[in-house]
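Reminder to self: C-alpha cells first, then the designed residues, so the page reads top to bottom the way the pipeline ran.
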C-alpha cells in the first residue's frame, strides 16, 4: 500500500487501480474511506485511479490535532500527494463532500488543476448545499417504486433514496458505510472557518480548467437544478444529468457513468504522466 507523509507528519495512504493516464480521486462521506468508490463503474479500465484515503480514514493515519480534519486544512494533503507523485498538475475527480475539498484546492491552486470532475457534489465551499426540501423532492419522485411504502414513510429512512436502484448491490454498498466513515472527523470537516464562499467564488470565477458537474436524476443532494447552479459558477463548466441515477451514479449505470467521465477527460486533454 503506497503512502506519503504530510507537512504535519501524518502518514496518508492512497490506492491505485487500473492503468493509463492518472486521475486523482477524492472521496466524500464526508470522511469516508475511498474503498466505497470501487473502480468507479469500470472507469479504471480507461484511466488509472489514484484514490486518496483522507486523514483518519481507511489506511491513513490520524492527525495529532483533530482540528486538522477541517476541510480547508486538508488542502495541503492534496498538494502533498501531488508532490509525492511528481505531478505539476492533475485531472481531479471528487464525489459528494469531497467536492468541497476539491473546490477549495482548485481555488487556492488553480495552476495544478488540469480538469475537475465533480460527481453528485456538495458545494458548501461556494455557499450552495442541498436542503431538506431538496431531499423530500427527490423522495417524492420515487413514489411509484415497489419498495417506496417501506422506505418512504419516514424521512429518516432515506438511505435507499441515495441509490437509483435499491438492489442487493446498493444494499451491500450502503451497509459498508458505517465502518468506512470516521464520524468524529465528519463532524469537524465542515466546522466554522472551513468555508469562505465569497472568496472561493471569486477565485473559482478565474479557473481556466474545464469542469464537469455530474448529477443524478434521482439524487436529493444535489438535485439536478442545484447542480446547474454550481456549474454556472465556473467559467468553463458543463452539466451532465445521468438518467435513473442517485448519489452513486457509477453503481446505477456503470457504463454510462464511465463513458461520460472518460469522454469529458478526453476533451480536456491528456497530461503526460511522470
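Designed residues (274 positions):
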Amino acid at each position: 500500500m503506497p503512502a506519503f507523509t504530510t507537512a504535519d507528519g501524518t502518514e496518508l495512504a492512497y490506492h491505485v487501480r487500473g492503468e493509463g493516464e492518472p486521475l486523482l480521486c477524492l472521496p466524500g462521506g464526508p470522511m469516508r474511506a475511498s474503498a466505497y468508490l470501487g473502480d468507479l463503474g469500470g472507469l479504471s479500465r480507461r484511466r488509472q485511479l489514484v484514490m486518496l484515503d483522507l486523514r483518519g480514514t481507511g489506511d491513513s493515519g490520524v492527525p495529532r490535532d483533530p482540528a486538522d480534519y477541517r476541510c480547508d486544512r486538508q488542502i495541503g494533503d492534496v498538494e502533498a500527494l501531488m508532490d509525492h507523485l511528481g505531478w505539476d498538475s492533475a485531472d481531479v475527480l471528487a464525489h459528494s463532500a469531497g467536492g468541497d475539498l476539491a473546490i477549495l484546492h482548485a481555488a487556492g491552486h488553480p495552476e495544478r488543476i488540469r480538469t475537475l470532475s465533480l460527481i453528485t457534489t456538495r458545494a458548501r465551499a461556494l455557499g450552495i448545499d442541498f436542503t431538506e426540501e431538496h431531499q423530500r423532492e427527490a423522495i417524492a419522485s420515487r413514489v411509484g417504486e415497489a419498495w417506496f411504502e417501506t422506505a418512504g414513510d419516514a424521512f429518516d429512512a432515506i438511505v435507499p433514496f441515495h441509490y437509483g436502484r435499491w438492489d442487493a448491490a446498493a444494499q451491500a454498498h450502503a451497509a459498508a458505510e458505517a465502518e468506512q466513515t470516521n464520524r468524529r472527523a465528519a463532524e469537524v470537516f465542515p466546522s466554522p472557518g472551513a468555508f469562505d464562499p465569497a472568496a472561493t467564488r471569486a477565485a473559482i470565477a478565474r479557473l481556466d480548467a474545464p469542469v464537469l458537474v455530474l448529477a443524478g436524476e434521482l439524487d436529493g443532494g444535489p438535485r439536478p437544478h442545484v447542480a446547474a447552479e454550481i456549474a454556472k459558477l465556473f467559467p468553463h463548466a458543463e452539466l451532465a444529468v445521468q438518467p435513473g441515477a442517485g448519489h452513486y451514479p457509477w453503481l446505477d449505470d456503470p457504463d454510462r457513468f464511465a463513458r461520460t467521465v472518460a469522454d469529458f477527460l478526453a476533451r480536456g486533454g491528456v497530461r503526460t504522466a511522470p
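The longest helix spans residues 254-268.
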